User: Fold Transcriptional regulator from Teichococcus deserti.
Amino acid sequence: MAAMKHPEASEFRLEKVLHALSDGVRLGIVRQLAAEGEASCGALDGGRPKSSVSHHFRVLREAGLVRTTTFGVTHMNSLRRAELDARFPGLLAAVLAAEGQG
Amino acid sequence: MAAMKHPEASEFRLEKVLHALSDGVRLGIVRQLAAEGEASCGALDGGRPKSSVSHHFRVLREAGLVRTTTFGVTHMNSLRRAELDARFPGLLAAVLAAEGQG
DNA sequence: GCCTTAGTTCCATCAATCTCGAACTATTGG
DNA sequence: CCAATAGTTCGAGATTGATGGAACTAAGGC
Assistant:
């Protein structure tokens, strides 16, 4: 089951969100999730070892950016766009709009 | 003179900007600058030692968030709002709008 | 039951970052 | 020229964060 720890929207902290997004690997993951809607961890690993990818997903989860649900043996991840936008209006949109510019 | 190194708007990097904003001290500085227009380093030190404050201003400068100009013996800092908004539309506004929520 | 798959957790290592004191630099004032 | 002011730069210590290997866990398939 999806017994992973996800913060509630009221617990989101701006600094944590910004820190989660300030890493290239995680930013890439967030962009791909934004483009594809949802994906498994493995689909976004970019050739990195599992433990690294898992670490990054954890940071994203704990910041409130990503929700992970267990689906059989794979873990599906998706952006918590609505909740994020309710708490920090326009923030994620601005980050995603900066796409391609580094 | 203001011989400090400031990146041009075309050199701004999203990750660097987000990292600069992901620290509580710097976020506080940015918010105060947004509220007051401009201020000297010392006016925003919050009781911290000079070297710490100077470090944070350097991070902000190098990310492109702040422009520092020397004015006699004091250094005046201001947000590079227009340039930032041109490069990352809505980003700074979203961060500042999240004010008071942590 | 046993093996595979998909991740997580644990651990160690290494690189960045934050903090702060001390020394240095530039500008103004006496 | 000497002192004071406002920051910067340097250097050390402590914390945080990234990376990746190895062992562990949960769910399905044979």
